Amino acid sequence: MNISHIENIFLLHNPQYPERLIFQKKQLKKIETQLTVVNPIFFQESNGFQNKAIKSCYASHMHILKKIYLHYNKPCLILEDDIVFYESIRNINIYINYVMFNHNWDFIFFHKPLPGDNIKKYDKNVCYVSGITNAHAYVVSPKILKQVYTTLEDFFSKIDKSTKKLTWESHIDYIMKKHIHPLYNVIAPNINLINQNRKKFGSTLGWGYNGSLLTID
Fold first, then answer.
1. Cβ distance 171 to 54 under 8 Å?
2. Nearest CA among 161, 170, 160 for reference residue 208
3. Residue pLDDT, tens place only, 85-106
4. Where do the domains of the chain lie, and which CATH numbers do they carry?
């Protein structure tokens, strides 16, 4: 089964944990949509970022977004390799179709908003938010990809040149939620369709957590 209206799935995979790719291929095997596995960009220093894992995660998402806006003109799904589908692919398709045909959207997320995600309005199936936490599974409209990438690149440069280490402010989640999402139509479901499963993968395997990618400075 194809995921409707999605041209490609980009899976950000840390090769230090091959068991994750085994799991993802098993989880995604029923999807006929093209799958591209992208390894993270690694760094020898963290500079202004909280740690090298956070910097790697940020740069790797930028790399994927740039690749999409340069080579694709249809929506693509970006996944991190520790996500788990809570719903069937059929239900994911229903959700994507509903959003694309009934709403003016720029971002589509697959987990319900967290406290503090600033819900602007509901309909019976989805909600609009001014910013949403987490970047583990999302679709960005092709029409805004270049602007989103340029904004992320600008903040990356500023953080990387910072004379002090930033904490939450150096996460791509924070930059997107505070400086990108408020400018666009961000849509999320009212129930979790997909999530990062810490219990399944272990607390040290999640993106951006201590020991997850590289030794912390």
1. yes
2. 170
3. 988 888 999 999 999 999 999 9
4. 8-201 (3.90.550.10)
